[in-house]
Amino acid sequence: MNKVKVVGYKILFHPRFQYPVLRCALEDGRSFDMSSIPIDAAIAIERLANGIDITSDPRMILALFLAEIPFIERTLRDTVKEVVIDDILEHRGGYVYCASVKININGKTFKKIMVPSSAIILALLAGAEVYVDEKFLAPFSFDEKL
User: Fold this and answer.
1) Beta bridge partners of 103
2) CA–CA gap between residue 8 and residue 49 (Å, rounded)
3) pTM of the predicted structure, to 2 decimals
């Protein structure tokens, strides 16, 4: 599998979409877009990746709460090794991406399949790298004016 490293994230809102779009900037200059990102995931990714609050809601979401607990951060850094958006599956009449999360527990490496936005939050909390499988990098993307 050829994979391309994600080097940045941007949450985009568009009136045609009920949920935000997550644009992943790739190390080779391309981008990879995922739509229908849950709003709590969008809030967490934009805050953890860019330090930007995209909501005026004063309530804290779980990912941002966990980010403030040093023990959690240390444990995740020791456990989460990488995230790769590497699969797609049919779900509710459409298709959704899947992310493989490589974790190391007691010297053993495991792979867990996660929702990509959740896996990206986990990687941001752990300081782990995120990659996209080359097979998903089609020559089109959302309009840059999104």
Assistant:
1) 80, 110
2) 7
3) 0.90
DSSP 8-state assignment for residue 136:
G
* ∠ CA 140-33-73, rounded to 5°: 150
Q: How many other C-beta atoms lie within 10 A of the C-beta of residue 99?
A: 24
User: What is the Cα–Cα distance from 26 to 40, expressed in whole angstroms?
Assistant: 23
For residue 41 the two structure tokens come to 């995931």
Q: Could you tell me the maximum CA-CA distance found in the chain, to the nearest angstrom?
A: 47
- Residue ranges of domains in the chain, CATH in brackets: 3-136 (3.10.690.10)
Residues 96-132: tens digit of each pLDDT = 999 999 999 999 999 999 999 999 999 999 999 999 9
Average pLDDT over the chain reads 91
At 44-94, the pLDDT tens digits run 999 999 999 999 999 999 999 999 999 999 999 999 999 999 999 988 888
- Dist CA 69 CA 63 (whole Å): 10
Question: Distance between CA 34 and CA 116 in Å, rounded?
Answer: 9
CA distances from 137 to 3, 54, 86, 134 (A): 10, 27, 11, 5
